[in-house]
Amino acid sequence: MSLRYALLALLNVEPMTGYDLYKQFESSVGYVWHAPDSQIYPELRRMERDGLLQGEEVPWGTKGRKRQYHVTDAGREAFRTWVNTQLDYPRERDPIHLKAAYLEWAEPEAARQQLQAHIEHYGARLLQWQQKIEEIDGGTSDMLNRRLATVPDVDHQRVAAFKRFTYEGLTARAEQEIAWARRGLALVDSLYP
Amino acid sequence: MSLRYALLALLNVEPMTGYDLYKQFESSVGYVWHAPDSQIYPELRRMERDGLLQGEEVPWGTKGRKRQYHVTDAGREAFRTWVNTQLDYPRERDPIHLKAAYLEWAEPEAARQQLQAHIEHYGARLLQWQQKIEEIDGGTSDMLNRRLATVPDVDHQRVAAFKRFTYEGLTARAEQEIAWARRGLALVDSLYP
DNA sequence: CGTCTCATGTAAGGAGTTACATGATTTA
DNA sequence: TAAATCATGTAACTCCTTACATGAGACG
């Protein structure tokens, strides 16, 4: 259900086509929420059916057409309700930690490789998220700048602050995961001298 | 696909029925991986069909019957392969952080409540996970003790160490989430004086 | 003229949730 | 004997993944 609100969030800034949204999910917003095109296009149609979006056919080139969606009042209201509503926390279900509990079954070398991969995975994410923070601080974030253009100056600080807060949480998580995996590597070394 | 290996992990310790496994997922193991009965029973049948488990009808009371599953050689081999194989990391998809990025749309009070709920959610998890660590350290973990009974003494330390390592990662994550939400509360206070 | 990007889909299947359904056994 | 626990399912639905499919426009 979050996909719906991720789409509303992006379309609140400006009208876009499914493809525009798909690209956003591949890059910027995709570092917080990812969705493939095969999920985006049907969801946009459902959202229009439910009255949250209004689509408009616009010409593209001489023969081409594309469908641009903008958020309706009902859509803005639904989004506002979502941000104000407590969401349910899913039950725990983490493949990495599940496997970590049974690493005594693994070859030491395989255990090391997987912990190393964990470090690399979160290392790459960390760089991306840190870069987002730098963009926010430097005022070079395209998406944020477009969003800021639609709100009064007095609210700019607030809008930017929550974006920064989000990426701070993600970088802290990444750092924690890296630290944990490093402790895991040390543990493997100590158990298999 | 992880459900399959969570089930194998539990059945590696001793044969169990679907209901036994369901209870484990409701309590102990459930703090790392949860699954409802409606997912467990069909998966057990699929695993038997695939030769990873062997089920056996055992009488229960006078008229009742239950099906007890034990892991086959193929099942143990599949589990060993799983722990040795690098798993794919899913793309980022986190409803909490997605929403955090748009908290400027929320009422300050609603924002506070949701951050508070985040603290309470991870606070409760933290206690559960810390308790698991204490059980491991104190030798009072039922599941771990049964598992240790099946391996040579020299491996005991190793088996326990990885269980502890898992819960250390989860507690560190919980503490990080709590710290993040606390910063969020301070941020809301500073933005809406 | 070929390749990359833009643009929009369908189809099959896996994983998980929620709700519904049934009956035996044990225990207070 | 009523309630809790043990035991095992089905059915409908949502969400997501992977793969397949097609065609126009832009650029070099």
From TrEMBL, chains A, B:
Domain Transcription regulator PadR N-terminal: 7-80
Domain of life, per lineage: Bacteria
InterPro entries: Tscrpt_reg_PadR_C (IPR018309), Tscrpt_reg_PadR_N (IPR005149), WH-like_DNA-bd_sf (IPR036388), WH_DNA-bd_sf (IPR036390)
Residue ranges annotated for the Transcription regulator PadR C-terminal domain, each copy included: 93-187
SUPFAM superfamilies listed in its UniProt record: Winged helix' DNA-binding domain (SSF46785)
Protein name per UniProt: PadR family transcriptional regulator
Provenance organism: Arthrobacter pullicola
Source taxonomy: Bacteria, Bacillati, Actinomycetota, Actinomycetes, Micrococcales
